[in-house]
Structure formats: C-alpha cells, structure tokens
C-alpha cells in the first residue's frame, strides 16, 4: 500500500520577478532616444551571433503609461525599424508584451534618465541585460 506524498502547491519562480525596478520610475522622463552600449545574455542566438551585432538605437515614447519602443538596427545590410508596444505592469518600471504566444518582460532596473539605463529582458525564462546610453554619452 503506497502513500503519495503531496507537495505543497508552489508558484513557479519567474527569474525576471527577482529583479527590482527603478524606484519611483517615471515613464515620461525615460522617453527619448537611447543607444545600445552593451549586452549580456544566456540567449543561444546572442551567444552564437554576438560578433555580428551592430549599433542599435531605440526610441521610447510614452503611450499613456505604456511604452512604444522603436528599434532601429541594421540586419543583413538593410535598416529595420521594429515597433513594439509594451503594457505597464502593476509596478512602474515593469512592462510586458505578447507576440505570437511569446511573452517578453522588460524591467528598467536603473536609470538616471539622462546618461544611462540598465534594462533586463526576459523571453522563455532566459534573461538578457542591456546597457543603454543617451546621445551625449555615446558621442564622447
């Protein structure tokens, strides 16, 4: 006679939930043009293709507390303008979107709104961290 031990009903931990968003995040101050400076990731594609990555510019616009991110990048010799709309979560500084069943979460972990921004992105439980700078920082 076997008895089954029951496991407590545990919530599956989402890695991005451990990252704290910028205190008192202000979406209006965050809008503008940002330039990608550095990327760190466990994403298989980035691990294999990071030597091919080129300059990326993002333009963030406020959409009534949600954000639109226009990513301008060169890929295969062509310029691409990729528009993505992210909905603000309950916590300011956290945004998400779903595209073709794949959820992307973004956390603006730290920014001074004028010089730098550290963003964490998660897709399929894999986290990527990105460092962005404003034009004046990148130009020097």
UniProtKB/TrEMBL annotation:
This is Lipocalin/cytosolic fatty-acid binding domain-containing protein. GO terms for molecular function: complement binding. Residues 31-134 form the Lipocalin/cytosolic fatty-acid binding domain. PROSITE patterns: LIPOCALIN. Belongs to the calycin superfamily. Lipocalin family. One of its GO terms (cellular component) is extracellular exosome. GO terms for biological process: complement activation.
């Amino acid at each position: 006679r076997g008895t089954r031990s029951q496991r407590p009903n545990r919530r599956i931990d989402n890695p991005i939930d451990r990252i704290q968003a910028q205190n008192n995040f202000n979406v209006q101050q965050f809008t503008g043009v940002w330039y990608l400076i550095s990327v760190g990731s466990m994403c298989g594609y980035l691990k294999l293709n990071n030597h091919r990555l080129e300059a990326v510019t993002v333009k963030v616009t406020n959409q009534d507390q949600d954000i639109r991110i226009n990513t301008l990048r060169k890929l295969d010799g062509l310029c691409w303008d990729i528009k993505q709309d992210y909905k603000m979560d309950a916590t300011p500084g956290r945004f998400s979107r779903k595209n073709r069943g794949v959820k992307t979460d973004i956390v603006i972990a730290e920014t001074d709104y004028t010089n730098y921004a550290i963003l964490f992105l998660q897709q399929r439980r894999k986290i990527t961290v990105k460092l962005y700078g404003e034009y004046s920082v990148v130009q020097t």
